[in-house]
């Protein structure tokens, strides 16, 4: 399955390589943040029953509220090595924190990703949902 890339030319968030250690959905995803002079990636564990269904629901909820919401919405992986904070100001702003949680004093990357609230957000939600359910065997 192709990676799901979210964002614009400034900075992007990408999900790829779902790994399954049982039934669907995915238990692990590769997550990458990239932009001008920035590139970081990490294999992230879902760690919950239901795998990355929580991530798909997070994006689906944002897409359902595409006209806007008050405050901040958030997703965090069980180990805290991926956190996504979403706000809306006419466009969707994702603040992405990715870090190497398995190493004391491991690297940390924080980046802002912007996308349109309509079709781009809907495509992101659909892509994430398909990716976490896709099995490439």
Outline of this structure?
With 137 residues, the protein is of the alpha+beta class. 20% of the residues lie in helices and 42% in strands.
CATH class (first level) name: Mainly Beta
Beta-strand proportion? 35-45%
Strand order of the largest sheet: 1-2-3-4
SSE order, one letter for each helix or strand: EEEEHEEEEH
Rg over CA atoms = 14 Å
Considering DSSP H and I runs of 4 or more, what fraction of the residues is helical?
10-25%
CATH-defined topology: Transcriptional Co-activator pc4, Chain A
Which second-level CATH architecture applies?
Roll
| Sheet with most strands | 4 strands, antiparallel
How does this structure look, described?
With 137 residues, this protein is an alpha+beta fold. It has one domain: Transcriptional Co-activator pc4, Chain A (Roll), CATH 2.30.31. It has helices spanning 53-64, 119-133, and strands at 4-7, 12-19, 28-35, 38-45, 73-76, 82-88, 91-99, 108-116. The strands form two sheets. It has a four-stranded antiparallel sheet, covered by helices on one side. Helix 1 runs antiparallel to helix 2. It is globular, with a radius of gyration of 14 Å. The mean pLDDT is 90.
């Amino acid at each position: 399955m192709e990676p799901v890339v979210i964002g614009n030319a400034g900075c992007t968030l990408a999900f790829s390589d779902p790994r399954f250690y049982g039934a669907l959905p995915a238990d692990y995803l590769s997550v990458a943040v990239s932009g001008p002079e920035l590139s970081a990636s990490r294999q992230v564990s879902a760690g919950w029953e239901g795998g990355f269904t929580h991530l798909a629901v997070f994006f689906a909820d944002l897409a359902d509220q595409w006209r806007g919401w008050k405050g901040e919405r958030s997703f965090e992986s069980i180990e805290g090595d991926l956190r996504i904070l979403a706000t809306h100001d006419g466009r969707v702003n994702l603040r992405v924190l990715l870090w190497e949680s398995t190493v004391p004093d491991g690297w940390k990357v924080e980046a802002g990703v912007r996308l349109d609230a309509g079709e781009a957000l809907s495509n992101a939600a659909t892509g994430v949902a398909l990716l976490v359910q896709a099995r490439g065997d």
